[in-house]
Amino acid sequence: MKITFVVPALNLSGGLRVVSIYAKLLAEKGHDITVVSPNKRMPTVKERVKSILNWKGYKFNSNFDESFFSDAIYDVKILDSHRSVKCNDVPDADIVIATFWNTAEWVADFPERKGKKVYFIQHYEVHSGFPVERVRATLRFPFKKIVVANWIRDILRDEYQQQSIHAIGNAVDQDLFFSTRRSKNSVPTFGLMYSSRTYKGSKLAFDCFKRFQEKFPLAKLVAFGTEDVENVVGFPDGTKYYHQPKQDDIRNIYAQCDAWLFTSNSEGFGLPILEAMACRTPVIGTRCGAAPELLRSGGGILVNVDEEEELFSAMVDIHELEADKWLGLSNKAYKEAQCHQWGDKVIQFEEALVECYEK
Known about the structure:
Layout: E1 2-6, H1 14-28, E2 32-37, H2 45-53, E3 75-78, E4 95-98, H3 101-108, E5 116-121, H4 132-139, E6 144-147, H5 150-160, E7 165-167, E8 189-193, H6 202-215, E9 220-225, E10 240-243, H7 247-255, E11 259-262, H8 271-278, E12 283-286, H9 291-294, E13 300-303, H10 308-320, H11 323-338, H12 342-358
Parallel strand pairs: 1-2, 1-4, 2-3, 4-5, 5-6, 6-7, 8-9, 8-11, 9-10, 11-12, 12-13
């Protein structure tokens, strides 16, 4: 089949990474794949002035990044400017896939020759910072829906009366994220993926680690993220921060931790959970995204959203585990990660697309 993915703009988000994986795997299965993206956003006059004057440390960043698509074996088309993707920007195809709420608005106006319409939903984007009513409207579009978690499927069915939905969870690249059998650290070490977005819960993780550090002064925290270190607020003392690390370095970050902190209060799936588990790192995760399903098998500790006391207690529990008990937790995490293979997921994804095309 000829399949087009329409993305909001190339970047280093987990959602775009998943799109790049599916595009590659579908291309390897013989499909004709095109990814279409707006170009990078240019700064406004006000943003340029603020950046030149370094106003309150401001530095413009479009967040545009081609890394996930740089070695693509399929066609990647980047528009001439940062604008909506129009009908004439995409090839005629069998399937056209919207990958975000604004791309669903663009795709909605495409004629039939651009392909049967599919909406690939990786989060329920009805939180502050987005035009909530417009987002809700896209969820009612008569597209076939593919979602990354059962909880999103349930919301679409119960609140939006959508029926044509496939729930296909994410997986982990076993060639990229792995670790040999290892032992608990002599110095307690925790890790997290940093984001300034409040729903990611980085402040909660920092606050809990500071409390933990008071009790166990030698404790270490490692973190990585896409934001410049000077823009990170509230780092605990001694934190080692990796800015946009290479994939091999991310594996090593996961693999040096006794537990990975997943502290979001809203999440579509949560890829770092699986990536950490594939590196034999237990996860302390909040009850959102795929954490309840992924931690059910015992590869970590599940805590309630925004509960600092629960998160702190879980960190202490991990630290006080005897070496063999921690190893059992680590092995369960690794075993769970092995159950989530991209080769299996792309078959399900392909079947959903075929079903859409044939109806």
